[in-house]
Amino acid sequence: MIRTTQLVSDLNEVPETWIFEYYLNLTEKLDGQDIKMTSIFNSKDKEPSMFVYFKDNRYKFKDFSSGLQGDGMNLVKEIFNLKFGEAALKVIGDYNNYLLDHKQYDVSQFKIRNKFKIKSHVNREWTLSDKNYWNKYKIGSKILDHYNVRPIKSFVLEKDKDDYFEITGLRMYGYYRENGDLYKIYQPLSDKRFFKVQDYIQGVDQLTFDKKYLIICSSMKDLLAFHKLGFTNAECIAPDSENTMIPKHVILKLKGSYNAVCTLFDNDEAGIKAMLKYKEKYNVPFAHLRLEKDISDCIESHGLRTTREHLYPILTKALTGTIKHLP
Predict the structure, then answer these.
(1) pLDDT tens, 242-287?
(2) Which of 54, 155, 247, 287 has a CA between 20 and 30 Å from the CA of residue 233?
(3) Burial 270-308 (b: 16+ CB within 10 A, else e)
(4) Architecture of domain 201-327
């Protein structure tokens, strides 16, 4: 252990692990492990959706409930709604008060920890249960096959050769690339709905670049559901998640390939913040559908016609700057 025994006057002297431990009231010291917890930014968060994780020899956080993420200082800024300078002064002051009360802070040596990865998986045949699930969103076998969505019987998570376990269950689906590579597993009935295998912009393999418009949806399920609405002059893609920004060079290429591009993310805090971020960073307009949480939920609750009637003028305004209504 490295001991800190004197007061500090510079932000760089404050251990970043202390920032996370202190302001998140963690009950364990950070020494290289990842932490999963309920969101401190969303009091309605029932399932843990906030992660404190160790990457590139430092700690960061990502809150899927609110869309917030960053390092220790970003955390303090967001918790107390402070500017960077104000947050820095607060951290230095709080850390010095901590030292006065506790005399020292032991900085842990980080341990190298392996993470669970998907080692293997087994496919299965489609069942009536699968049909009933996807049919709620009017998604049929043809569109599922086009986007390489296939049912999975089981998959194995492995950390080390002696530390692994198999997951089985109903309604597990694999998302595949055109070359057959698995990039994500989707479990709609599980608390952990997604297991990412590799980075991939969903739907990019299916782009034909012969349509006028491109819609960036929030998920593969919404991408699939969008196709059922009958907008024949638009194509769709979806990032890994709303909180994963598509790289700038990709956005520039897409803008050059279509008359217009817009986002169509979830109608919740995280989705709205993500749409605003694309607008601010890339000048990509957004279509905000307020009918339900997302496109697939709209179709399930209100049907294809009503969803289309609500979405058409919103998309038209986002993509062309004008307001039109269905004839």
Answers:
(1) 778 899 999 999 999 999 999 999 998 889 989 999 999 999 999 9
(2) 247
(3) bbbebbebbeeebebbbbebebbebbbbbbbeeeeeebb
(4) 3-Layer(aba) Sandwich (3.40)
